[in-house]
Batch of 2 targets.
Target 1
Amino acid sequence: MPEVRVIGLEGLPELGPGDDLGALLAEACARAGGLEAGDVLVVAQKAVSKVEGRLVRLADVEPSARAVELAGEEGDPRQLEVILGESAEVVRSRPPLVIARTRHGFVCASAGVDASNAKGPETVVLLPVDPDASARSLRERVTELTGVAPGVVVSDSFGRAWRQGTTDIAIGVAGLRPLRDLRGTRDSVGYELRSTMIADADEIAGAAELVLGKSAGIPAAIVRGVDVSGDGTAQELVMPADRDLFP
Amino acid sequence: MPEVRVIGLEGLPELGPGDDLGALLAEACARAGGLEAGDVLVVAQKAVSKVEGRLVRLADVEPSARAVELAGEEGDPRQLEVILGESAEVVRSRPPLVIARTRHGFVCASAGVDASNAKGPETVVLLPVDPDASARSLRERVTELTGVAPGVVVSDSFGRAWRQGTTDIAIGVAGLRPLRDLRGTRDSVGYELRSTMIADADEIAGAAELVLGKSAGIPAAIVRGVDVSGDGTAQELVMPADRDLFP
């Protein structure tokens, strides 16, 4: 029977700026029995952001008038100021909630700025500056240390329009094909398929979350048995403006 | 190491109205080594719709003026007429593409009407009338035949605002908790979590798609190792109007 396995990587230490995350992941993979050809390594965004030093102390932030307005009565204006700094565009707001388009083109709550699990209540975590570059860099380091070149996905939890709850999706990709393009293929009865592009990288990130979410001590997982050989970036998962029905 | 497994169920016959899908799934589970307590059975919507007879022959459809308009030059007005019949509201249209809110409250392309993999080019497949009821019914039948009561998810491929490609999500749920509610819990460093609800059922559906998508001959999969004990429906995954920032 065809099978996909998601194997959580435990035992990583609490991470901080400058830590060699690639080496820590390589060690964790070894403890999990080793990487195999075709494996995809999914790493939580927060782990990547921490080692890249993408942390802001709220004490250092001076909120603008707009941040004060967006915070409303419940929000922290300093946190909203950080969110505005990460936003290319505010798509929706209902104080203190902001849905923003980040400079990467991702539309998500708080422009990806996260107050949870940071180093102290007065610190927030930002998305990596270039999550695709983060994924490439981790891939190179893991390959160097293990001799196996995995696909790498940097994942984050995003809300969706019209649906409750978040799912993890891919914000950074290296060494795998993020989209499965079925255009022109035909299904078993011979008719043109409706769903022409499958977001494999997002489904892989979501599958990994089922393991990552079990404990804060599991910042990464191996996804084994998917066929995503190829290459690409998470930018391919951003809807191009000319196809966007929800600008 | 914590692990989740997705096991594809092969060997089901081509399905048609009235087939005992629950019995076929029970047999397929037996061939895969048997169901275990805590397993979730993910079944593709199209398989469910076919056995429930949710098929429409386009030759029997008389298109309205609005269907002709929405079809534009490229679409089939009869197919658009079926889509309108399944829609509570057209959310966006760019002929022949329609994004609609179905009577279930799902916002998706073509109101879930699918022309692929149907029984002939002149037949389309509709979503089940009540996918939660479909899931409950399959769960009861599988439990009756195997003695194990799995969670059941009926899955379909939905596009997303702002992102390219579809991911599979849950349109019907039985015998599992579709959302993981983290409100009030605190993470490992002790701060309030940002992401308060995780759409487990959607991540499970997406994980299953990684196996279902490998071949048209795999209409279902077992997802093993997730902790979603509880109960609920896919209606809980529909964003309530008062929380919806994208009405």
Target 2
Amino acid sequence: MDRFKLYKQLKQHSDDKIVFLVLDGLGGLPRNGKTELETASTPAMDGLVAECEAGLMVPVLRGITPGSGPGHLALFGYDPLEYAIGRGILSALGVKFPIRDGDLAARVNFASLDENGNVTDRRAGRIPDDVNRAMCEKIRSIKLEGVEFFIETEKDHRAALIFRGLGGRKFSEAVSETDPQKTGVPTLPSRPLDESKEAKETADLINRFFKEVKACLKNESPANGILLRGFALYRQIPSFSEVYGLNACAIAGYPMYRGLASLVGMEVIETESGVESQFAKLREVWDDYDFFFVHIKYTDSFGEDGNFEAKVSVIEEVDRNLSAVLELNPEVLIITADHSTPASYKAHSWHPIPLLLKSKWCRSSGIKSFGEQALLHGSLGIINSIDLMGLAMAHSGKLQKYGA
Amino acid sequence: MDRFKLYKQLKQHSDDKIVFLVLDGLGGLPRNGKTELETASTPAMDGLVAECEAGLMVPVLRGITPGSGPGHLALFGYDPLEYAIGRGILSALGVKFPIRDGDLAARVNFASLDENGNVTDRRAGRIPDDVNRAMCEKIRSIKLEGVEFFIETEKDHRAALIFRGLGGRKFSEAVSETDPQKTGVPTLPSRPLDESKEAKETADLINRFFKEVKACLKNESPANGILLRGFALYRQIPSFSEVYGLNACAIAGYPMYRGLASLVGMEVIETESGVESQFAKLREVWDDYDFFFVHIKYTDSFGEDGNFEAKVSVIEEVDRNLSAVLELNPEVLIITADHSTPASYKAHSWHPIPLLLKSKWCRSSGIKSFGEQALLHGSLGIINSIDLMGLAMAHSGKLQKYGA
């Protein structure tokens, strides 16, 4: 019996509501003996933690640093080693493209090329969104035999590209990227990365498409070329409602997290990015769903910038506004992260993630502050992220007993 | 996606060096409330542990006592339930025999037999190595149809035997041993342990070989017979360099651990057994490798002898000399064991193993002494040995992020 089969078999309805408050990259490393979370003044969370279950989570495996995709999939209970979601798919989902089984997606960078075809700017001077949209519109005039394609503006110089096979044509994601990752050199041709017929045909298609785009944009400036990365095939995965029976929504400001949420079948709510506005949105849609994924981005951004103080201040901002969430009386409130992003490390890391779970069915955590050091002694110990959804379901009365 | 596939996909080069300092059988049981490690005066390790990540490790599964093979394979990240390495293979590797896929290896004891073929001494009076070598030389004159064989002196009365099939001939390891495990009785014939043709043919071969050896040694004394144990087929396993991209060496004084190291593709460095000499050897080869497995044997030996004080004093000797390792500034230093060997238990045991991991990317362990009791509260909690390599790779910057 696999995990999803078990959840599907045991799930039952309850009116209880579950809030996942995800502070992206929350986990940290100590500076003068204290991590970002331990440094932040968090009276609201510290008050909660004593009455809650609490602990730490390993997102994938010990030592494995997750990208946002695996980090969130694990939080949502999807084994990140089984459900590998390529970057191109996240881009397509991020622009709300209605992707289908078998589609091949990629990330597009508009770029500047010189007369010899060498890349002079990998971001085409970060063109504004309306220029991006105009370039996409031009590219849509291209015809490719046997293939339908879609190109959609993301933001600045970025767009999402989707190929759809006609007449049963199949693609492969085992093809190399065309982005040379530096300037002063030509774009790379895509090459098949395995021996399959599909990989060869897909690489040919990409190279043909690139040639057509170059011809189509040859008189444009600065965006007269494209770079393609993150080729990924879309395969449908079980939805949140199918696995858990939850009517879930996502309150996330950034396209990638919206993409991840829609991948698992959550409704994506239009929102500004920002603690106050996202919490206000939560209140607004409170009656319409029973699961709420609230994604706070800036803890991670400041971690990646190496800005310890700014990361601390985002944590404090969440803490100051937490009453807005608590006033809604969610039966289950979880405060956690998708992975750690220590400011000293300036990148995602493998270190376990802080976790707090509030419900009326909690043992007391036995600790008094919400910080990595204290959480080591919390009631949940160190669990795997993939186990969190089971706990959320149990604490909200949404799982029946297993077996007689 | 399995663990090795994941490591292979994510591995990247860094100049960081990793030291695995393995105190064989380090874990213990309390006497007057303190284990061997807790009793030992270890100011160096206690000083380290406060600034390190620390915890305990389960080598195989809770309750499973590993032999040296599974204990070390797990430390090296190889699932010991998947990669079962027979004792015969370890003997062959221990004498640096260039074993090949499909070879069948066994341990040999030279023994004394009386005129009726009954065993009178299972170790032939522990013959000196040069007598052992002379016997091996005699045995090499035997011819077996369809099979090549090799016999190599180990030490005292022990040797390694390897059969190699000619013309595609296949062996089975499902055959019984010929050692009766007591004196006054004849050696046992080998029997097939399953219904396969290979098992029957292999048992026949072993019995034929035994008869030839008996004839060949009939005028010798005291070693006029052999006992065969630990039949094992060799199957190549992924190398350390293939899985982790590491250029690894082993500084181990004892053949079995050298065999284990060479099994996973480590370079085996010639060294005397002894803390000071092994640490000096580490310094000598420091520039040539990026992973160093330093194996200290005597903690285990004294544990098996039931000599609590002597085990304590080996731990103290390592601690006194630890500065020789720290002066090399390894980016990652791990101090741990392959399994526990409590002096009171006088044998390997299943109890979790002490673990300390030093790098610049550590959360503080929150503890102040390196001992089983304190380690329960360490930052790593209780992990599986098989997870350690992932942590070592992460802390040394040798693993890329997983997924976008």
